[in-house]
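Quick one:
INPUT:
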């Protein structure tokens, strides 16, 4: 009730996504602006990027996994299709609270040996890890209803200047933002709209 009263009395609205701004304009007939999430550049390490890829391709995910919404199964299935020699050269690391769910999915796709789950690390440590990774994994919900969602993590990943493997709704604003900013789009989980 309080939220409705606040919106009713507001002169204008602010949100973090163009898609959400359009929804708010239609619903409330009020001017609506977009202010993107972002990052503080001074939080990132100042050391130069190391593009010397080692023996193993290191794919990194930092953050939370929301069951049914952020699902790495498409990546695990792709790794499972690799021959033994190539498969040994890929490692996916998760830093966060993903534990049992991610390991269960990895086991299901028979790639448990290629997946490492670690506990969450402090913010600046996560940024350093992102800059050291070969590929950054961005997981979103593969559904049109997630079209307007732009996670704050996308801006960290773009600042880290590493290739981004995106698994999510390919026509959403997050996918478009990555393409427009020169990040790389990977594959999307198959889904019928």
């Amino acid at each position: 009730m309080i939220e409705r009263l606040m919106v009713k009395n507001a002169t204008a609205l602010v949100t973090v996504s163009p898609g959400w701004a359009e929804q708010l304009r239609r619903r409330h007939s009020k001017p609506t602006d977009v202010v993107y999430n972002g990052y503080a550049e001074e939080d990132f390490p100042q050391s130069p990027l190391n593009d010397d890829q080692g023996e193993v391709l290191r794919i990194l995910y930092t953050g939370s996994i929301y069951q049914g919404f952020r699902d790495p199964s498409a990546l695990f299935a792709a790794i499972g299709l690799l021959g033994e020699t190539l498969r040994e050269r890929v490692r996916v690391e998760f830093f966060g609270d993903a534990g049992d769910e991610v390991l269960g999915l990895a086991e299901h796709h028979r790639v448990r040996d290629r997946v490492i789950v670690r506990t969450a690390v402090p913010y600046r440590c996560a940024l350093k890890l992102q800059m050291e990774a070969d590929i950054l994994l961005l997981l979103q919900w593969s559904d049109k209803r997630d079209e307007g969602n732009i996670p704050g993590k996308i801006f960290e990943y773009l600042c880290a200047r590493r290739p981004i493997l995106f698994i999510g709704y390919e026509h959403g604003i997050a996918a478009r933002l990555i393409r427009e900013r020169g990040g790389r789009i990977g594959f999307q989980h198959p889904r019928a709209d």
